[in-house]
């Protein structure tokens, strides 16, 4: 490994990109960084990695000053989607020369290139893009005069986080790990009192034949959540729950046929997802499974409140908690945001605010323009003695968890009203669905009305909102995401719908990477799909459509 000590010294952040690597190379680089007393404040390693599922894989590190992102894609495609400015690039055994242009578009000014196996065509392509080769055959510096994106300045690391559910707790943990001082503002007396307050949430990926944007985003979030929870202490230990697996039954013969086609492509590792034909599914479940189903062996259930507790405990002394403050409003004065309580008093102040309070965001002037909906969800709590014993989570249109403490959870409804009370009609809907799920019309017979009602925060496209909040009033004739005016220092983690358990860790990691100017844990296409400003552009397009087309 080439000695980078003279290059990273005195830097706030230093990013290294590998086109090929070994685990020992990365470990050696990190060890050299740790051993250097004059090292950069942060080191980011991005590397291509065979054998992983497609996309970006952020691997949590024990030292939050280090990040590791593995990319499973051809080099030219990976570079085109990389939200980073590498300071050092190691190229080894790269085919073709198509990588030269996307590499030149993203590297930092003065970036160093180290490559020992370039052919003449590749060397010429790199020179044409602004790389100047030096004495050693494979060493070059990027000396193009084309303007580079400015390096984001070091932020003042103080923030307010609104909301102490999964979104807000994850934000607090990621910010505090990067050295931020955070004030958590929650209207309730304790964390996880709203959508994150259910006894059990299930975690599982999403599959599709075309590997579309929701599928890719959910896969990345699911895999990152599994790694992040392990670092917190693990499901079943620090986090209440069980990684017992999830069996998603096929809805009908057509759904089973489509699932078989996905399975036949052979793209899915068996530890991630495995298609089970009816006999195998029934043998595993001990119940009827007439059309088979998908087994997600790493899936399971967790109590969201215990995840929130583990995340907040990890924050240490950098976190200040302000609970029971009721509703707040935001006001910006002299470069700082003030969170004011119902009596007008200042609850907290900081240069940055992360709005992570779910449907509560609709009551803030700065986020009221976002098209967020509140969907009522009633979960039914059932005595496990009234149900078949399950070895794993079972789901289809609804879900049923294995018993914990003698209670199984079934649900959840999707209602458009704002009734916060349990109601018999929703209970019966849940019970009818679980009876279909377990093929037993007598299941949960005579169950008393018990459970919980929560309200999901949902965007029209069912994707989260992660990033800087747009200023709707100042948007004007904006046509591109990058040109949408934003509220300074105001960010969103919203719209997690029914997937907050797995969305929260990766969304927080993405937001904090944006704040810190780090390599992003997702492809830029997926980052754009989560940008809250997408709704500014959609509103403009909608307003230009003929009236007949919008009716």
UniProtKB/TrEMBL annotation:
InterPro entries in UniProt: FAD-dep_OxRdtase, FAD/NAD-bd_sf, SAM-dependent_MTases_sf, tRNA_S-uridine_synth_MnmC_C
GO biological process, one term: methylation
Keyword annotations of the record: Cytoplasm, FAD, Flavoprotein, Methyltransferase, Multifunctional enzyme, Oxidoreductase, S-adenosyl-L-methionine, Transferase, tRNA processing
Statement: the UniProt record of this protein carries the keyword tRNA processing: yes
Domain FAD dependent oxidoreductase, first and last residues per copy: 159-513
Transmembrane segments: none
EC number(s) reported in the record: 2.1.1.61
Pfam families linked to this entry: DAO
GO MF entries: tRNA (5-methylaminomethyl-2-thiouridylate)(34)-methyltransferase activity
The protein's enzyme class: transferase
Protein name (Swiss-Prot/TrEMBL): FAD-dependent 5-carboxymethylaminomethyl-2-thiouridine(34) oxidoreductase MnmC
Gene: mnmC
């Amino acid at each position: 490994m080439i000695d980078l000590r003279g290059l990273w010294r005195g830097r706030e952040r230093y990013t290294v990109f590998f086109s090929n690597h070994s685990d020992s190379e990365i470990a050696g680089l990190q060890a050299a960084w740790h051993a250097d007393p004059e090292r950069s404040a942060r080191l980011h390693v991005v590397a291509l990695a065979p054998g992983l599922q497609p996309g970006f894989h952020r691997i949590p590190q024990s030292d939050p000053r280090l990040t590791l992102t593995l990319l499973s894609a051809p080099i030219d495609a990976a570079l085109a989607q990389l939200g980073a400015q590498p300071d050092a690039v190691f190229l080894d055994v790269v085919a073709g020369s198509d990588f030269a242009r996307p590499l030149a578009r993203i590297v930092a000014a003065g970036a160093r290139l180290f490559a020992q196996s370039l052919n003449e065509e590749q060397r010429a392509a790199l020179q044409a893009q602004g790389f100047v080769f030096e004495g050693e055959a494979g060493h070059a510096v990027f000396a193009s005069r084309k303007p580079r994106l400015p390096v984001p300045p070091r932020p003042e690391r103080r923030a307010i986080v609104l909301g102490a559910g999964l979104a807000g707790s994850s934000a607090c943990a990621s910010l505090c790990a990067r050295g931020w001082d955070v004030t958590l503002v929650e209207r309730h007396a304790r964390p996880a009192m709203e959508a994150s307050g259910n006894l059990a949430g299930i975690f599982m990926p999403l599959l599709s034949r075309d590997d579309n944007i929701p599928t890719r985003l959910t896969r990345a979030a699911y895999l990152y959540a599994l790694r992040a929870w392990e670092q917190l202490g693990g499901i079943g230990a620090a986090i209440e729950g069980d990684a017992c697996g999830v069996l998603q039954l096929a809805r009908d013969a057509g759904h089973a046929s489509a699932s078989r086609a996905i399975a036949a492509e052979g793209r899915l590792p068996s530890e991630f997802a495995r298609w089970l034909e009816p006999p195998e599914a029934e043998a595993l479940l001990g119940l009827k499974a007439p059309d088979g189903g998908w087994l997600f062996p790493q899936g399971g259930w967790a109590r969201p409140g215990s995840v929130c507790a583990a995340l907040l405990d990890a924050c240490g002394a950098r976190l200040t908690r302000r609970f029971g403050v009721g509703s707040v409003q935001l006001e910006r004065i002299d470069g700082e945001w003030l969170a004011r309580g119902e009596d007008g008093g200042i609850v907290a102040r900081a240069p940055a605010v992360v709005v992570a309070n779910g449907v509560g965001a609709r009551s803030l002037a700065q986020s009221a323009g976002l098209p967020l909906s509140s969907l009522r969800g009633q979960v039914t709590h059932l005595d496990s003695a009234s149900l078949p014993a399950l070895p794993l989570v079972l789901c289809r249109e609804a879900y049923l968890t294995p018993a914990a403490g003698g209670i199984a959870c079934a649900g959840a409804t999707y209602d458009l009203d704002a009734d916060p009370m349990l109601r018999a009609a929703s209970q019966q809907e849940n019970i009818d669905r679980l009876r279909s799920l377990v093929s037993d019309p007598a299941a949960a017979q005579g169950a008393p009305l018990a459970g919980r009602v929560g309200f999901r925060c949902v965007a029209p496209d069912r994707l989260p909102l992660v990033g800087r909040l747009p200023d709707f009033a100042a948007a004007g004739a904006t046509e591109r995401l990058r040109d949408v005016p934003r509220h300074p220092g105001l960010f969103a983690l919203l719209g997690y719908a029914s997937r907050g358990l797995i969305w929260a860790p990766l969304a927080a990691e993405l937001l904090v990477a944006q704040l810190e100017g780090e390599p992003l844990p997702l492809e830029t296409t997926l980052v754009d799909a989560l940008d809250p400003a997408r709704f500014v552009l959609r509103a403009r397009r909608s307003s230009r459509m003929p009236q007949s087309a919008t009716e």
